[in-house]
Protein 1
Amino acid sequence: MYFMKEPLKIFLMPYTKKLTAFITLILLLSNVYVFAQVVDSTSLVDVIVRVDGTLTYGKVTEIDQEFVKYRDSNVPNGPIISLPRKLVYTISYSNNTSVIVTPKFGTRKIRESAFDENALETEDEEKIDWKYNIQHGSLKVGLGLSRSFSSFKGVKGFNKTASAPALFVSYTFRFNRFLLLGGGLGYASFNYDYKLRSDYDDIDIKQTINESVTTLNLFGRYDLMTGFLRPHIILGINVNYAYVDLNGEIFFRDNLKRVATSSGLRGFKTNFVLRGGLDFNISKTFGVFGDIGTGTSLVNLGAIFILN
Amino acid sequence: MNYKPRQAFLFFIGILSVLMLSSCRDELEIYQIEREGVFSYSTDDITKEYANNVNFFQGKTVVHQFEDGSSKVYTRYLLEAKGVNTSGKRVIFNIEFDIVNTGNYIGIYYPEYDPAKGGIYGFNYLVETSGGQYESYNLDPEYYGNDFFRVERQNLDERLILGDFRAHLKSDADPDMKIVFYEGTFKDISYALY
């Protein structure tokens, strides 16, 4: 206080007094510095590690059956914030002790906010950031190698002929750690032919069926594991729009008459989808997958493009 | 789930419902050959009559004695057709013919045997009388030259035969009562291989 009140007088002091005053000043400053250190090291900042790996700094005031309550370290006199227990993996206290709150730790992509009990409106304890999750989904592009859906399965006398593999594109986004939602579009074509040359009946019949199926697919996917290998189960619904043309020609040999036939079919048909598969994420942005089950194709193989 | 995704979900379900409810289906015209055994005949060259229960059986192996004293072994077949005529009387045809058993039935058979092919062994027609009895008719030897039974085509894959016949018959009880079958046809009659 002396130096504060009389700052100029120090220059007028004798040398010994100046030295004494300087040492006194150093000691005082040292005390202040040491005090600051003590305050910092015992600043009561606890570290809350969430299950999604993010860190929150604050002073934990209470842990009850549902919430971990803390004050934000940036707002020491701010409100108490309540964080659902299941979002908290562990708390590392300032006294170098720690406690595991929820023994589950992973790479959650969802964003969940803490529950502020002082807020005017309360929200669900797990608020899902749909926008974020939808923007960070994954795009799958694939081929169906063995087409299983067709309106004409088992039509007597018609044989399936070569046609291009089914194509499909789907987009999935995370709903929670294990459950994903998605939708997709697919296209498949099927060709059949029927040829009969019958000397017995004196008749020749040729018929071809061209069927195109466009599929809108909505599904939920449950990941059995997370990581670079992701076995999963898909359950969903396919809405198929079938576009079918049949062209035929009948030749009656006995009276040399030839009759041309043409007919078509358009319509919707829905079927449930149950598939099992495996995603192999080669990198953070790319992977390959395969699955098998009901739907447009028996077996699907393709690539995954992950949007990060 | 907050309100907006729920609203989007309901909207989507609504769209799907509309799509499914408004779906339409035409019919494809697929042409295929339906097999149905047919046995038809006419007794007046005008009215076509049908027998709807037709069977074709392989019978025993027989030896036919020719007039010149020679003989040949044949396999006997029976074509049996049962039905109701336009008078509402039950009728039964039993046509027996002997052929060389090569698996190929195609040929024209007469009451007079051809040693190379065989011939008609018997052509029997039973018709129900008013008393519930049956009257029997058999080939009239006077018209042997005009009677025939022909297997015109044979479908080896489906084991079917088709052909036609003509027969002049007389009553066993009263030889003056005669009946002629014109334009007799049979089609898609299945046979078994032994």
Note: Chain B has one domain: 42-190.
Protein 2
Amino acid sequence: MIKLIDVSKKFDDLTLLKDFNISFEKNKITCLFGPSGAGKTTIANIVAGIVPVDKGCVEGVDSSLFSYVFQEPRLLKWYSAYENIDFVLKDIYKPDKRAEIINSYLKMVELSQYKNYKIDALSGGMAQRVSLARAFAYPSHILIMDEPFKGLDIKLKSDMISLFIKMWTKSQRTVLFITHDVEEAVNLSHVIYILKNRPLDVVDKLIVDNTSNNKEKIKSILLSD
Amino acid sequence: MMNSILRNKNKLLIILFWILVWEILSLIIGQEIYLPSPHAAFSALLNLLTSKDTYITIFFSTYRTLGGFFLSCVFGIFLGIMSGIYKPMYDLLNPLIIIMRTIPVMSIIIIAIMWFKDTNVPIFVAFLMCFPIIWTNTVSGIRSTDVKLLQMCEVYKIKRIRVIKSVYFNSSLPYIQAGMVSALGIGWKVTSAAEVLSLPKYSIGRFLYDSKVYLEIPGLFAWTIIIVSLSFLFEALLKIFFKFGDKYD
């Protein structure tokens, strides 16, 4: 269990978080649902240790490794798809092991035949798949997904979502999933936090089970927010 | 194909036009000392090209230019990367670079003559003139590095040295390359200038100096044409080298 306990965070004069508490269950997909600019990314960055807190503490992340799927692919455009994944694994595995891991994940995202293409030569959707493969190939305990499907068209988005589910099922880990898309939230998450206001509040915590009744109910709650 | 032939034909015509202007001007002036005719300059050039000494001279002047250029690349890129990443390093070096950029070349040449052997003076001067350009470009390149990529490296706990090599260096590469191209051009100019004052045995500068002393103005023009051609040639080689590097890195 990862816990943020009484966390406060200010950016200049803007108080984003004040005595904020939230918890994430291990090996579950937890969704942070809320409007843009609310501070969802800041919570994720605090968990990942990129953003320091002004007050409070984060529990349950000691010696954890993180991987991240950002809104944009954030790949090194001078490297190939293969080299981009290799880049994050180099300090961790020996070359043989690396090759095996990279090839299997590139296969999973159906990019095997593009593995030697420079990122510039790939489409936006392909690049985002490389980014997803990188996040899963990395032996992280916690995976943060910050609106990774934003800006993709419907077809690509549903492909990416099914790829994500496939990969997560194979290699389960704690996922923080940030979105303000109702469909994504309901279809991917186990737990949904509805976040609002400034400083940020947890307005509601919803547990998703797989009955369609429950899903419809949650959808209507999310839509009304 | 047809287009490129036409373009080259146009280029040739333009060059011919300017040589014609030169010819007409020299006819109007009518004195070789002020402005030799293209014919006199090119026959002096042909003359030079038949002498073995010319090639030895070109070799040594090229060695000095490239020597200074090479040193400024090594130091400029290394210190530029460090200064781009670490602000205190930048603050420390910046005043020195500003001074280096504003000191007249002649002051540096004269002081260098006091310090070094004649053949090394042009190398040192070329280094001092090229280094600030490459340093400045490298610093801007490093600063243009996408913060988002650096954040990604932080999340994936990439070692610092690999971040510098794979992210910072590659982001700044286009800036470094542009800096190297302009530094090389300046390198040729200041090397010849430094040679004129320090007079190493085999040097284009010494020939330039002699042309002045003996009022051998067509020779001056011929050597100038050689310097300009060398400068063009090495710029082209540098660009081919960059292209090659892009393909096979």
Note: Residues 154-170 of chain A form the longest helix (17 residues).
